[in-house]
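Late entry, written up from scratch paper. The run itself happened at the end of the previous shift, but nothing got recorded in the book at the time, so transcribing now.
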Amino acid sequence: MSFIEFEGITKKFPGTVALDSVSLAIAKGDIVALCGENGAGKSTLGKVLVGVYPYGSYEGTIKIEGQEVKFANTLDAEKAGVVMVHQELNLVNQMTVAENISLGGMPHKAGKIDFAVMDKVARDALNRLGVEIDPRKKLGELSISMQQMVEIAKAISRNPHTIIFDEATSSLTSSEVEALFDVMRRLKKEEITMIYVSHKLDEIYQICNSVVILKDGKYINQGKTSEVTKDTLISWMIGRKLEDMFAPKTPPDHQQRKPILEIKNWSVYKEKGSSKKIVSNADFVLKPGEILGIYGLMGAGRTELVSSIFEGDYVPSSGELFLDGQKVNISTTSDAIRAGIALLTEDRRSTGLITIHSILDNIILASIKNYVGKFFKRDGEKEMTAAESMVDKLKIKLSSLETPVSSLSGGNQQKVVLSKWLLTNPRILILDEPTRGIDVGAKKEIYHILQELADAGVGIIVVSSEVPEVLGISDRIIVMREGQITGEMFIRDATEEVLVRYAMEGKCNG
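Output as recorded:
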C-alpha cells in the first residue's frame, strides 16, 4: 500500500494552471526525486502537500496511509509529520541559530521560553547533520551554505515522517551535500519518506531510488533510478531528445583582438581598513566576444573578485582596471553600468530582484532611465515593449508582466534578472552561478543566449562551480584557490581533472 497518494491534484493561479490533475503514489521510506523544467509544478506540488497552499485552494485529494488529509496551513502539516526544506530560506537573520531551529515551536517552561531546551534541540539537530555551528550565533553572521544547513536542521528537529527537500543543496558545498546525503540515508533506514526536488541529475542518481517527472503541471512518467538512464530522464523532462547542451562555438578569432577588460594586481579585502585579503594580486584579461570561465571551490574568492569589479568602493579593493586599454576608476555600480559592465549576482532573491515588485518593474529596473519622458514620467508603452521583447527572447513563463516577480519559479526569476541586465546593452557581462537552480532545458536556452551575445562581441565572464558547465561554455578558463588564480588555460587544454587539481591543490602535475 502506498504511503502518500496524490489524486487529481489541480492548482490554479491567475492565468496559469500550475498543476493539472496530477496523480501519483509514493511508498513509505522512499527517497523520490521530483523533476521537471522550471514551471513544471514541482515546488507547487510540494507546497500543496505541506500546507503552504491550504486545503480548499486546490482540487483533488491527498492521502497519507490511506486517510485523506486537509491541512489548513504548514503548522497543521507539521503536527501531522510533514515538513519542507525550502530553496528560499524561511529564517530570520536577527535571531540566533537555536531560535530559528525552534521557530514556530519554542519550548516553554512556566510560561517562559526554555532556552536550555531550545539550545539542546538545536545542538541535537545540528549534530544529526554533522555540522558544527554555534546555536547561539546570529543567523545573519553565517554564510548562505551554513544558513541552508540550519534550515535543514530546523526540519529534522520536528521528527517528521515525511520531508520535502526543495532544491535544498543549491547553496551547499560538495562536503556539505555529502553530509546531508549521509543524514538522508540514515533517515531512510528509519523509514522516513523524502521527496527530493532537484535539477541536479548526478545528485538524483546518488541519493534517490525513484524519480517522478512533471511537465507543464502534468504528470509525465516515473521509474526507478536504477532502471532509467539520464538521457531518458532528460527526454521526459523536455519532451524531446536533448541535442548538444551547449551552443556551437564560432572560430576563436577573438583571441587576436585587444582586451576589452584588464585587471592588474587586483586584491580584495575582508573589510574596509583591513589588510586581510580575500583575493590576492589577481591578473587577467577579457577579450571582446570571449567567454571566460572562472572555476574554483566555495571560498576561493570568485564571487568577491567579480563583485569588486562591478560594485566599486562598496567592496574594498586595490589594483588597476583598464577598459579598452584606458585605466578607469569605478566607484559605484552606476559607474559600472555607464561603462557597459553588468553583473548577474549569485543570490537572485537578495541582490537580483525586488520580489514585491512586478515582473515588468524588475526587467526594466537597471535601464529605467531609457523609459522616462518629459517631467520624469515613465513611458509605460515603451517599458512594456522592451519587457515583452525580453520575455520572448528568454522564453519566460508568466501569466502577466504586472504580477509580482515572486510568483515565478526560481528559473524564471533568474531569466528576469538576466533580462534586466541585457536591456542595459552591456559590453561586459559578468554572471555568477547563472544556472543555479535551473532545469536542463532552461540551462540550454541560457547557454545559447550567452553564445549569441559573445558572437555579437560582448565579453562574458561566467563564475561557476559546475565543471561540465565551465568546460562546455568557456573559451578560456581561470581557476582560483584560496583567493589566488592558480591556473589559466584555453578550453582545448582543459579537462575535469586539470580544473579540480588546480582548485584543490593549486597546481596540476602532469
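Residues 243-340+459-510 form a domain with the Rossmann fold fold (CATH 3.40.50.300).
(Scratch paper discarded after transcription.)
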